[in-house]
Amino acid sequence: MVAEASDVKLFIYDVRGRLINTLTTDHQPEGAYQVQWDGLNQVGKPVSTGVYFCRLEAGSFSQTIKMVYLQ
After folding, report:
1. What is the pLDDT of residue 62?
2. What residues contact residue 2 under an 8 Å CB cut-off, 6+ apart?
């Protein structure tokens, strides 16, 4: 949920902290959104099964969650 209109960025990182993919970097109005990651890296190649982190940055708010990707 984006609490107020702001620049929204959504990133996927691996367990070593390397950027795997950038899912969005847009200005979004207030509201709820859904994003689905297709398991691909920035060059379009599939990633391995494992643990990844999703980081949301919206204005001054940021949150990181841990995910498990299974093929």
Report:
1. 94
2. 8, 28, 29, 30, 31, 32, 33, 58
